[in-house]
Amino acid sequence: MNQTSIKIPAALAALGLLGSLFLASPVQAADPALHGAGASFPANVYAQWAGLYAQERGTTVRYDAVGSSSGVREIKAHKVDFGATDVPLSSADLDKHGLFQFPTLVGGVVPVVHLPGVASGRLRLNAEVLTAIFTGQIQRWNDPAIAALNPDLRLPEQRITRVVRADGSGTTEVFVRYLKQTAATQAGAIEARDGVVQWPGSQVQAVDGSSKLVAAVKATPGAIGYVSSDYVLRDNLTAVSLRNRRGEWIAPSLEAYRAAVRASGMFRNGLEAPPLLDVDGPTVWPIVTATYIVVDRSPVALERAGRTLNFFYRSFLMGDRAVAGSGFAPLPTETQARIVARLTSFRTPDGRLLPVLSGVPGATQLAQR
């Protein structure tokens, strides 16, 4: 999404409660409007959750989809109530800054193209060819390496324009990690730092935010870019099929993301982030990631902090319905239950219990489900 504020009623409002308490400005503990910042990857889902939560609790929140790197910086500096990131913080980093992190949903990062006459899922690229395209080693769509993977397609001689993110993006970081993990030789020329990449070669168009990337791909014949899975559905983009670790050609889909979660054993024993890139399993989409919320472990205003966790508590209780039609996969049921238990028993380091369930009709019954 663009680096603009989205006014979201209650839901995201609930998110912000923790970090704001440390601030004299811009977030005030007494301010009923809550402020979050970070990843564009899950922003549309959070807005969907927010609308539902607003109907129940009537709170407003500002969420700035400024990219994962900025979201992490903001929560570490206590300038927002919550941060959102597609790249999980390490245990050492969480401890250093006094933060708590938990996953919310799972989605794919999807290469998308603008090639007239080519339907979504028809163009096939393996990791080596995809990486050679994004490093500028392959510059035209009728290159023999692309043609060899697509004998049934008539590929134009057109030059390839790479559309990439200019801002600090978790989507970019996940995408580049996949390229470097699966095609290390070709990806050696990619220089990445905190989600910002210096892409080698020419014919590169860099934009801020996923929405601008989508617009640029749509406006540029011969373009290729990468976005989170929800944009593919919402904006009717032409997705690429990729070859997974099993050698299967896989189009991006909800089931393919679920397959990666199953094959990885994701969060089976805790909330630590498992690798979801190039997972070995049948029907797996190879570029999958979870996205995370980061909050403060030591909030000053407990009621505000409790409302933050209450929002997520309610959203997780919705189960699969929480992400229905969004292009994302829900967390495994066992993981959702584990997170609900953690949220409803959240204590600060000095032993204070957050009032997560206060004022929630039927909270006791729900907590026992």
Number of helices: 14
Quantity of strands, as a count? 15
Per CATH, the architecture of the largest domain is 3-Layer(aba) Sandwich
Level of helix content? 25-40%
* Strand residues, percent: 15-25%
Net shape: elongated
Please give a handful of descriptors for the protein shown.
alpha/beta; disordered N terminus; 35% helix; 2 domains; D-Maltodextrin-Binding Protein, domain 2; ten-stranded mixed sheet; 14 helices; three-stranded mixed sheet
Summarize this structure briefly:
This protein is an alpha/beta fold and 369 residues long. The chain is 35% helix and 19% strand.
Write a structural description.
Strands 1, 2, 3, 4, 5, 7, 10, 11, 12 and 15 form a ten-stranded mixed beta sheet that branches. This protein has a three-stranded mixed beta sheet with strand order 6-13-14. The longest helix is centred in the last third of the chain and has 16 residues, at 302-317. Helices cover 35% and strands 19% of the residues. It folds into two domains: 5-107 and 289-367, Periplasmic binding protein-like II (D-Maltodextrin-Binding Protein, domain 2), CATH 3.40.190.10; 108-263, 3-Layer(aba) Sandwich (D-Maltodextrin-Binding Protein, domain 2), CATH 3.40.190.10. With 369 residues, it is α/β, with parallel strands linked by helices. Helix 5 (127-134) packs across helix 7 (170-182) and helix 12 (302-317) runs antiparallel to helix 13 (333-344). The protein starts with a strand and ends with a helix.
